[in-house]
Amino acid sequence: MPFGVIYSAIMPTVDNPTEKTLAELGVNDAQGVAEKFAEVRARFDRQVALDADGIRNLMLQEAWLGSDSDPASSLRNFWVGRKAGVLTLVTENWLKKSPPSLKGVVGKQFNELKTHIESKLEEQRKRIEEKTEASAATRDRIDLSLPGVLRPVGSHHLIRQVFQEIEDIFFSIGFSVVEGPEIETPYYNFEALNIPEFHPVRDDMDTFYLELSKGAATPLLLRTHTSPMQIRTMEKQKPPVRVIVPGKVYRRDNPDATHSFAFHQIEGLAVDTDITFCDFTGTIEYFVKQFFGPSVKTRFRPSYFPFTEPSVEFDVSCPFCAGTGTAAGGGTCSKCKGAAWIELFGAGMVDPAVYGFVNYDAKKVSGFAFGIGIDRLAMLKYGIDDIQVFFQNDVRFLRQFP
Ligand code: PHE
Fold first, then answer.
1. Whether residue 300 has its Cβ less than 6 Å from ligand 1
2. Per-residue pLDDT of the chain (402 residues; tens, 9 = 90+)
3. Which of 61, 105, 177, 336 has its Cα between 20 and 30 A from that of 3?
């Protein structure tokens, strides 16, 4: 019976002479014994020289090799397996069943074959082991020529880019940048800006006050605008003053497409001995043209802020429909909603009352201030319709502004 149980039904098998006795094989002298042993040995030598694939092929062709999933152990089992290996069969069928006259020869041949097979199988085992170790070593070796891990380099957030753009425009006309605290006292956020405690304008800025322990020297709040830095700057330096103040500001607004409880402003302040309303409008016009392009027009409308007098609201002619209110393909311009003008920011000449808080002589100095909302400006310029995307840090958005 062939050993290859699985394949035997479908594959032709090669005769295994060790399944028969020597008599059955027609062997009856020392010469014949030697030939049979040589035949078995030659078959072994062919098989032991095969690599794993070779053995697998053999397993398919010669079903008697068995079907162990590991080719080497399948081979080993076929030859030296204790129950039905070739050596066992030779002992059982050839040695034990040989006539007494041949016992000596068969025994000698058997011993030689056994030594040969066992030593060759041991060599093969070592070869396989070394090969496995070698390939593991190759796998583990560090290849210094491989490129390193490339960590993606980030880019500036769009808000920071717009800050930069605006800062550059004001640098070019002699302004410098100062920054200030986001936690303020009511004095800097309101009082020194000519907004006394019960002034109704405080209601416009729903304010975050910090929870402080009882007996704190002063209440603290998250600044509602960058204007406190007007005061801090003038306290620190004498005129001339030309500064811009980029920064975060906070108001108790519910988040929606155009509102956020945190947003960004750039404050501007210029104070000197001879600054006029013309310097003011000229500066603003220069900025707007630099930012939106030379063809836009500006206009201002009267407004009200306690710390500027007169106060104005600056508008820019809609840069998207060239101030016509009509979209390029006809129909109403979606940016200005057909108004042809877009409201930009609040500004004005510094109210003389403010100079009183910083010991400037209101009779000798004059100046202007403005507060630009950065988020709105960025949304306008880059066609963004939801302010929330600035704060969500979704890289799919951020990557659009590398
Ligand atoms: N601080 C004002 C605001 O946030 C803007 C402003 C700044 C107005 C400077 C005039 C002068 O609404």
1. no
2. 444 444 433 444 567 888 888 888 888 888 989 999 999 998 888 888 888 788 877 777 765 555 566 777 888 888 888 888 888 988 988 889 888 888 888 899 899 999 999 999 888 888 888 888 888 888 788 888 888 888 888 889 999 999 999 999 999 999 999 999 999 999 999 999 999 888 888 877 778 999 998 988 899 999 999 999 999 999 999 999 999 999 999 998 888 888 899 999 999 999 999 999 999 999 999 999 999 999 999 999 999 999 999 999 999 998 888 889 998 888 998 888 899 998 889 999 999 999 999 999 999 999 999 999 999 999 988 889 899 999 998 989 998 998
3. 105
Residue with CA nearest ligand 1 atom 2:
371
Q: Are strands 366-373 and 176-177 parallel, antiparallel or unpaired?
A: unpaired
Burial of 225 (0-12, 13-18, 19+ CB in 10 A): buried
Q: Could you tell me the distance, in angstroms and rounded to a whole number, from the CA of residue 99 to the centre of ligand 1? A: 120
C-beta 162 within 6 A of ligand 1:
no
* Virtual torsion, Cα 296, 299, 303, 309, nearest 10 deg: 110
d(CA 196, CA 229) in angstroms, rounded, equals 17
pTM of the model: 0.63
Cβ of 347 closer than 6 Å to ligand 1, yes or no, is: yes
Q: Which atom of ligand 1 is nearest to 311's Cα?
A: 10
Atom of ligand 1 lying closest to residue 230 CA = 9
* Pairwise CA distance, residues 335 & 379, whole Å: 10
Nearest atom in ligand 1 to the alpha carbon of residue 368 is: 11
For residue 74 and ligand 1, the question of a CB distance below 6 A is answered with no
Write the residue with the smallest CA distance to atom 9 of ligand 1: 370
Handedness of CA 210, 213, 214, 218 (dihedral sign): negative
Q: What is the token pair recorded at 26?
A: 């027609």
CA atoms in the 13 A half-sphere facing the CB of 104: 2
Q: Which atom of ligand 1 is nearest to the CA of 269?
A: 9
383 Cα to the center of ligand 1, angstroms: 24
* E strand residue ranges, 121-214: 176-177, 183-184
Residue 367 Cβ inside 6 Å of ligand 1? The answer reads: no
